[in-house]
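Worked example 3 (structure in, sequence out).
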């Protein structure tokens, strides 16, 4: 089970430590090691560049300093550390003599364990924040997510993950099964919490969408009844004295005869009155009703929720397969590729931000082109550079 140490058990067998390079055992061809190493290097470089851009974007642009983005900043720092640790992993896979000292590899194992578990905690915090901001009212959210409270949440996530790594280190010294059990509880517990939160978010959004559609339909029905009443009035006027109606419409159109040119024009005039005098009491009630039943859940909230869901799905797809492999006593090439999939999550998030969130993309482009003065809502230091 030495190959299960990567995600990341520190398992003692006699006086030695099970090191991460044991994932690629002696049966693995050296050419395969080179292929995996190249993939890891690509992931590492992409992740370092991408997460650095995310960190700089949030730090340099005040427009990106939303409540959720502070936790995104924390996640970017964690992913950046993971990508840095990947460089040491490549050295371990190739079995180079640069890090032949066991302490370096032990430090790598501790670091990669820490960043993997901290990613779980950060995703849980992002899910909770999204749930609270969407479902609770603004006053409660503003009171909870102050700068002080956000700092405490982030610090707590780091502290509890450090404690977990210490527990894994101690339990792994006595029982590999106990260490795996603790890890399993940590993973399952976090994913259960994250899924529960996002299910509640989507149920709330779906319910709001349903209510909005129902209110739109009721408003359209009320407007249709208003149009029908106006049309009937037009028809009665024409039936009572057709010659007078036509004469009045030709010589001096009244508001009623002007609206009676066609049913469509009657509908248009009732929907878009040009002056308060043109609005009948019934039409005024319909307009007031439409304003009162305006959608309460804006499209921006739904878009943000969808973006967070994409990030969650990417994290789940990358993380879960290898986590399941930890509990299967089998060593195969598939497991190594699942490890690649796991580490690739550290470089995927910046791509998602740049692809789906316009403001992130704009700020990143400004940073890449070294046009810091054109960053939207820059910090004070950058404003002075303009």
């Amino acid at each position: 089970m030495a190959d299960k140490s990567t995600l990341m058990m520190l398992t003692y067998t006699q006086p030695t430590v099970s090191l991460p390079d044991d994932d690629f055992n002696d049966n693995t061809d050296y050419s395969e090691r080179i292929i995996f190493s190249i993939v890891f290097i690509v992931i590492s470089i992409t992740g370092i560049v991408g997460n650095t851009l995310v960190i700089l974007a949030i730090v340099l642009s005040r427009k990106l300093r939303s409540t959720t983005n502070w936790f995104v900043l924390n996640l970017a720092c964690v992913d950046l550390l993971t990508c840095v640790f990947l460089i040491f992993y490549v050295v371990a896979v190739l079995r180079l003599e640069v890090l032949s000292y066991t302490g370096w590899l032990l430090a790598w194992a501790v670091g990669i364990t820490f960043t993997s578990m901290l990613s779980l905690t950060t995703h849980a915090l992002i899910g909770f924040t999204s749930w609270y901001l969407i479902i609770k009212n603004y006053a409660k959210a503003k009171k909870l997510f102050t700068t002080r409270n956000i700092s405490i949440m982030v610090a707590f996530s780091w502290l509890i993950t450090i404690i977990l790594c210490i527990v894994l280190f101690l339990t792994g010294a006595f029982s590999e099964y106990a260490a795996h059990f603790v890890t399993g509880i940590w993973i399952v517990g976090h994913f259960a919490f994250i899924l529960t939160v996002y299910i509640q978010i989507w149920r709330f959004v779906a319910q709001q969408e349903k209510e909005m559609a129902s209110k739109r339909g009721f408003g359209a029905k009320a407007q249709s009844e208003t149009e029908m009443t106006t049309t009937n009035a037009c028809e009665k006027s024409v039936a009572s004295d057709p010659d007078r109606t036509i004469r009045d419409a030709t010589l001096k159109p009244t508001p009623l005869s002007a609206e009676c040119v066609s049913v469509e024009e009657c509908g248009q005039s009732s929907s878009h009155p040009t002056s308060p005098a043109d609005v009948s009491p019934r039409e005024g009630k319909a307009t007031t009703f439409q304003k009162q039943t305006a959608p309460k859940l804006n499209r921006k909230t739904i878009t943000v929720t969808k973006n967070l869901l994409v990030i969650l799905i990417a994290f789940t797809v990358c993380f879960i397969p290898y986590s399941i492999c930890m509990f299967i006593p089998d060593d195969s090439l598939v497991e190594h590729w699942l490890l690649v999939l796991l580490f690739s999550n550290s470089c995927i998030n910046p791509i998602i931000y740049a692809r789906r969130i316009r403001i992130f993309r704009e700020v990143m482009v400004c940073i890449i082109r070294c046009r810091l003065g054109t960053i939207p809502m820059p910090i004070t230091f950058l404003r002075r550079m303009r």
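Notes: Confidence is low (pLDDT under 50) at residues 1-22, 97-101, 242-279, 281-295. The two ends are 59 Å apart (CA to CA).
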